Amino acid sequence: MASLKAVRTRIASVKSTQKITSAMKLVAAAKLRRAQDAMVAARPYARTLAEITAEVAARAGGESHPLLQQRNPRRVAVVAITSDRGLCGGFNSNICRTAQRWGNEKIQNKEADEVTYLVVGRKGRDYFRRRHLPMKRDLAGPTAANAVQGAKDLAATLTDDFLSGRVDSVLLVYNQFRSVVSQKVTIDPLLPVVPSAAGRGGQDFLYEPSKNEILDWILPLYIEMQIHAALLESIASEFGARMTAMGNATKNATEMIDRLTLQYNRARQAAITKELMEIVGGAEALKG
Fold this sequence. Notes:
By secondary structure, the chain is of the alpha/beta class.
């Protein structure tokens, strides 16, 4: 059995850890509220813009703009959105494993000749580097401060790669926020832009300016907004996952403290009983 001093030291260590995890849970909860508000506010705009873009693209036709051209996806770019920090359960590992598994399946099934990864977040970068996977570029993890600029830079990079023919298809892999305890790994196609089936046929509209000019303006905006919405979903999911993970860690620390306290009391009682027995034994020896 461990000594009393060792058990006391362990109890003090676990209590210190419990304070840290409890504080991290509170911080994540406060940040989650702001991130969730930003995400919810962006969802209607992103959804409406996607519907409008898909309908205009369907009426314009796939050959009306380079970003609508459907190619044989032999070179695929996968954008994996992770975070810079850990301590959030399986948030980052689920994204990385899903992206890697998807890429391996495409290569094995000969549905793609080359799959490259563009990673957002330090945790994702470390994962792909350790496994020597083809990583084209890595960016800083998304935050409320850099989400807008990060979406613009990423959209410009991906659009340039697609238009120049370096990639034939682009996909986003990120955690979609559902609730504090539920985040769903989502794979969304980004490029080429897929026209809406409902927009094909039927009565067309008069466009001012021209249809091509509208596509030149709305398609880059659509790509940027889809990336921005994914970044906001990822930020909210990260805080939700961290809040849950730190809550579980605090609960586990409480249970561990209870077990160690019981162990300490038992060891202390055993030591007291041993001392009493020695005293009684000594007294009996003196009497004899």
